[in-house]
Amino acid sequence: MPMRILVISDTHGELGNFLKVMDIEKKVDLCVHLGDIEGQENEIADLVSCPLFAVRGNNDFFSPLPYDIDVKIGSYQAFLTHGHHYGVSVGEGGVLEEARARGANLVMFGHTHRPVLREEEGIILVNPGSISYPRQEDRKPSYMIITINERNGKAEFEQKFLKS
Q: What is the C-alpha to C-alpha distance for residues 118 and 86, in angstroms, rounded to an integer?
């Protein structure tokens, strides 16, 4: 069975679209939240019936969550961060440099509320956008599903959007 990973970010205390995503996606094996949860860490953990990796965003003022997580996912060394400490609002150079320094070949970040899926210098950059307050041109709430092949550990990435 392949491993299905739900990647979300920037819910900002709004769980309505998160609940819609959970209903659409049904079963996931891992959930990744890339920050700006705004006090709903426990609610989100209770809503997912799988392990949860979550990082602290710039609006998570009193959160006990870490700012960064390094974790092995399939055949990837992943670096999870909200991204604000690495200047992602003005470009992805800082987060790429940090990923390289950590030996990561996959970096997941949020903060910009705009989806990103591309590879640069052998590092895959993933930003699911925001399921609560999207900022890309069409302003559709977005998230990412990553499917890990059980035989070779390779990932397939699918950027998804909620219908209005």
A: 18
